[in-house]
Amino acid sequence: MSVLRPTKKGCGGGCKKGIRGGMMRVLIVEDEKKLAGFIKKGLEEEGYAVDHAADGTTGLGMAKEGAHDLVVLDINLPGLNGLEVLSRLRRQRIATPVLLLTVRASVEDKVIGLDAGADDYLAKPFSFHELLARVRALLRRGAGASAPILEVGDLRLDPARRTVYRGDQRIELTAKEFALLDYFMRSQGRVLTRAMISEHVWDYQFDTETNVIDVHIYRLRRKIDMPGCPKLFHTVRGVGYVLKVEEQG
Ligand code: CA
């Protein structure tokens, strides 16, 4: 018998837990070094974990990993501009809240930014307190829409609580295994290649000769597909792996 668990996270007012259950993680994409440093320092002092990218292409790559709770995105950037970064993110269904920064504060620009999928807009120059208020509001909004529990067969993963159950048996996973399983569950029924997995769960492409991914998946499978349980992980020889409920009969 499976036990349903509450989906809401009992998160108090000062809580800065992020989507991965750790600290709230903010990505700043801003080429003005001084401004980026100022925002980064200020947010870190407020208890956020902060990453920084100094151009649009790097920022897009980091934001695509989906590991951030919020992106503070400048519009005028070298490489891809902020609006282009934003629309590419949204096209790839990355829904991380985005706060756009710009010197152009005209109504038209604001409309363009919001149309491109920005959640809020801040015109330079701004005070840090103004930025912080927007950041808090966006993060609260994001936290309100609590992440749904992922289910494949009798396997359940709660992204907010970072718990995994097979039936009513709790399964302890390492951070890497959890990230792997999260990816597999979100892609259920889809064959994931090693290249897809390394890009998504690790931040880089592994040498094709390495078996790091296979080793991690082997360990994860042993925990998930316990003896006596129907197998959920399947190897697709020469291609990769798929997580799915095998059809009976
Ligand atoms: Ca800029």
Fold and architecture overview:
The chain folds into 2 domains: 25-143, Response regulator (Rossmann fold, 3-Layer(aba) Sandwich); 150-243, Arc Repressor Mutant, subunit A (Orthogonal Bundle), CATH 1.10.10.10. It is 37% helix and 19% strand. The protein contains 8 helices and 12 strands. The protein has helices spanning 33-45, 56-64, 82-91, 107-115, 128-144, 175-186, 194-201, 212-224, and strands at 25-29, 49-53, 70-74, 98-102, 120-123, 150-152, 155-158, 163-166, 169-170, 192-193, 233-236, 240-243. The chain has a 5-stranded parallel β-sheet with strand order 2-1-3-4-5, with helices on both faces. It has a 4-stranded antiparallel β-sheet with strand order 6-7-8-9, covered by helices on one side. A 3-stranded antiparallel β-sheet has the order 10-12-11. The chain is elongated and about 60 Å long. Residues 1-15 have low confidence and may be disordered. Calcium ion is lined by residues 31-32, 74, 76-77.
| Structural class based on helices, strands and sheet pairing | alpha/beta
Instruction: Calculate Rg over CA atoms.
Output: 20 Å
CATH superfamily of the largest domain: Response regulator
Structure annotation, total helices: 8
Topology (elements, then pairings):
Layout: E1 25-29, H1 33-45, E2 49-53, H2 56-64, E3 70-74, H3 82-91, E4 98-102, H4 107-115, E5 120-123, H5 128-144, E6 150-152, E7 155-158, E8 163-166, E9 169-170, H6 175-186, E10 192-193, H7 194-201, H8 212-224, E11 233-236, E12 240-243
Parallel strand pairs: 1-2, 1-3, 3-4, 4-5
Antiparallel strand pairs: 6-7, 7-8, 8-9, 10-12, 11-12
Helix pairs in contact: 2-3, 6-8
The protein binds calcium ion.
